[in-house]
Queue: 2 jobs
Job 1
Amino acid sequence: MALDKRFIGRKYGPLTYEVGWEKAKEYARAIKNEDPHYMDKDFAKSTQYGGVIVAPTFAVVCAGELAAPFFMDPELNLNLGMLVHGEQAFEFYEVVRPGDVLTTSGVISNIENKEKLDTVSLEGTCTNQHGRAVCKATFTFAIRKRS
């Protein structure tokens, strides 16, 4: 059965995530990018940012918080056994720093019904505690149809 396009515009969140210094360092190590902007407080003080910043792709952590309510939405009723990650895209607007409180809101931005699969896109926007957008993330999933 095709995923119903009436779900385009369905909203998730807002969800809040406080960026911790240790989590930001762990993330930088995990992606093998121990740039001193992310790891060294003394170095970072002397940069244009005036302090430590977080790797831009850390946005996947807070934007990814939308996954649980999206995947578990009983009305959407996604067949998780047939769902695969298709692609993701990010737009970055402002640096994130340890201590920032990010609020993420999401919306189903697109649903495409095709012969062998449906695709659904979830778009999330993260804003900081000052109300400024720090990034936009778009996750696209494919749900294979049974033959």
Job 2
Amino acid sequence: MIFRSGSLILSLDVEESLDTARSREPTFMSSRLRISAVAIALIVAASLAQATVLHVSPDGTGDYPTIQAALDAAVSWDEIELADGVYTGDGNRDIIHPALYLTIRSQSGDPTACVIDIEAGPGNAHFGLKYGDGG
């Protein structure tokens, strides 16, 4: 095929161009996938880089006085670290975990050292932790 524009003449072999395009398609797709993977990795890395560690202690002396207060202040990708001990009372029972991507963990790494005592009994119903809106 020949294209002519003014004094410029372009000769194009259609079959050769289609073969070349077909041979480059996997490379183009691989490049697109690589770019997408890199973009996703950068977004996740940026989100994690902005994550905050919120400290809670059973005696209320941490960054937040209760687990619920820390959850209310948290944003996605934050971490809530619980100091070892027994958590009791309002804000440390009947806890509503917001629909966020969070990590709640023991500061010492021993999950059995962090206890949520909901202090429930007959006529005194409570729960530990609910995810979402609590409904």
